[in-house]
Amino acid sequence: MSKLKTKSGAKKRFKLTGSGKVRVQYAYKRHNLRKRSQQMKRQSRGMNVLTRSDGNIVKKHYLPNA
Q1: How far is CA 15 from CA 1, 10, 29, in A?
Q2: Is the dihedral of CA 32, 55, 8, 11 positive or negative?
Q3: Which of 3, 46, 48, 52 is a good FRET partner for 25, with 20 to 30 A between their CA atoms?
Q4: DSSP readout, 5-44?
Q5: Are 28 and 44 in contact (CB under 8 A)?
Q6: Which parts of this chain are annotated as the region Disordered (predicted)?
Q7: pLDDT value at position 6?
Q8: Which fold has domain 8-62?
Q9: Percent of the chain at pLDDT exceeding 90
């Protein structure tokens, strides 16, 4: 059986924490920010932790070697 490859798009979008959780950037922060509320832009700083079920999908299918 061939080696499992990590999806290169997933490498750029997801990071794993030390305990195995999946961190991801908040969405809707790239452009058209003038129409977003200041509260939304402020609360979307930094990174977010995915739910356990979504994180398991990401780790199994997109980051198998991580």
Answers
A1: 27, 9, 18
A2: positive
A3: 3
A4: PPPHHHHHHEEE-TTS-EEEEPSS-SS-GGGS-HHHHHHT
A5: yes
A6: 33-55
A7: 87
A8: Factor Xa Inhibitor (4.10.410)
A9: 86
